[in-house]
Amino acid sequence: MKKKLKSLSLLGVIALLSLGSSSVYAESVTEATYGKSINPSGIEIFAEAKYPGAGTYFDPYSTTREKSTDFSMEVTNTGAGTTSVTRTVSIRKFANVSVGGETELNVMAQKVKASLEVNAGVESNKSVSITWSIPAKSVYTIKAGSVVVKTSGYIERANNSGVVVSRTYNSGNWTTSDFSDSIFVRKL
């Protein structure tokens, strides 16, 4: 009788152990397949590779180029032939980015194909001598300044597989080149 009880209790322990391991196994499978991923940092995670590899990239939403006038003057030529007018003017140069610094601004400039004249956060003035030709018996407005690029979009950081692991909205504006214009006003 003692021998029979021992074998029954041994069978019971084996049965309990096997049930216990099944439930542990089932529980871990359930957790792995059912678990919801919660990211407390608020970073958006994307599954598909968007870029060729790790790095910082810019995905522009909008980009514009416009002229910013630093010098304007009306010129009258009362003579019978074309005349030249030369002026030394001061043109403002700047570069701004709303989030980040030099790295983000360089990535933006490279993506929208617009060179930077100064570093991020810098503002300076450049002295330039410009000559305009004014036709006979006419009035013109002469102008000079900088071409300004304005862009906004997302700075995206990708892992080694090219998968975007974070994106941040950003905007920037900077001067990219000088310009000079002469605009006809009227004949004399």
UniProtKB/TrEMBL annotation:
Annotated keywords: Signal
Superkingdom per UniProt: Bacteria
Signal peptide start and end residues: 1-26
Protein name: CARDB domain-containing protein
High-level lineage: Bacteria, Bacillati, Bacillota, Bacilli, Bacillales
